[in-house]
Specification:
The chain has 281 residues and is an all-alpha fold. The chain is 74% helix and 0% strand. It is built from 14 helices and no strands. The two termini are 19 Å apart. It comes from Geoalkalibacter halelectricus.
């Protein structure tokens, strides 16, 4: 284990309503040390919970907006979907869970020398697998809850899944970059907030923005697309082209995009701005 440069701003966060960007960057880098002492079972369980929490927000967005566009317009329907979808990250941040996209910020700890890069790869592998299992489990639960028997809701879920698998590699990659840029900014701001109300607001605005904009989140898609695949087997519901191969063809570029967006545009950018001088001094 390499010994990183001290980050004095994070040793004892000041008692105030929010941290400055420099203080927040330090605190995130310090918090990254948790991967060194956290057991595999703990990481896996927290990852399963995160997959379920994101799926809670995703299914809520589907149900709330399945018939909204003809009434309030597509733009406002997207705004409502994003508003309720933000529940997922609120649960992750406030209740505690390991979300792959948010863990892009572990790169701050590696860049600052607190953890090895191999620790990040190991964490990402376990967390991504746990998020996937949690998302699939929740999709299975929702399918067997029979809440999807209402035709319009099922059709909306199928349409959402179909649209995602039809994206080109380049479009999915770019939408993934833009998505996790916002998700990691939400985590950054939630870390800066010192109370629950501040953390809720920090999660809400960026997540609402990415959903309303149509960006792509890998863990959310691990719920959306399998839900469509389950529904495609129901008599009367058709989804041509919706296959597990299409699921992988979406998840791969979206995941790569999420990594680029979180690691480069948030993790590296703020480390370079606030911590690079400390690392090299």
């Amino acid at each position: 284990m390499t010994s990183g440069s001290p980050c004095p701003l994070a040793e004892k966060p000041p008692e105030k309503r929010f941290l400055t960007p420099a203080e927040t960057t330090c605190l995130i880098a310090e918090n990254g040390k948790r991967v060194l002492n956290q057991s595999l079972s703990r990481t896996l369980l927290l990852s399963l919970l995160a997959g379920v929490y994101i799926a809670f927000g995703a299914q809520l967005a589907t149900i709330v907006t399945h018939d909204a566009a003809p009434i309030i317009g597509d733009g406002l329907a997207r705004f409502v979907a994003g508003s309720v979808f933000s529940l997922g990250l609120m649960l992750v941040v406030i209740c505690g869970a390991e979300l792959f996209t948010g863990n892009s910020l572990l790169t701050k700890a590696a860049l600052h020398g607190h953890i090895r890069w191999s620790s990040i790869w190991s964490n990402w592998t376990v967390v991504l697998a746990g998020n996937l299992v949690g998302s699939l489990f929740f999709a299975w639960l929702m399918f067997h809850s029979l809440l999807w028997e209402q035709g319009q809701i099922a059709e909306r879920a199928l349409t959402t899944a179909q649209a995602k698998v039809e994206l080109s590699f380049a479009a999915a990659l770019i939408r993934g970059i833009l998505c996790n840029w916002l998700v990691c900014l939400a985590v950054f701001m939630a870390t800066a907030a010192r109370d629950v109300t501040g953390k809720i607001l920090a999660c809400y605005v960026p997540i609402m923005a990415f959903v309303a904009s149509g960006f792509e989140h890998s863990i959310a898609n691990m719920y959306f697309i399998p839900t469509g695949l389950l529904l495609a087997g129901v008599p009367g519901l058709e989804a041509p082209g919706l296959t597990w191969g299409g699921f992988l063809a979406n998840i791969i570029p979206v995941t790569l995009g999420n990594i680029i967006g979180g690691v480069i545009f948030v993790g590296f950018a703020y480390w370079y701005i606030h911590l690079k001088a400390l690392r090299t001094s």
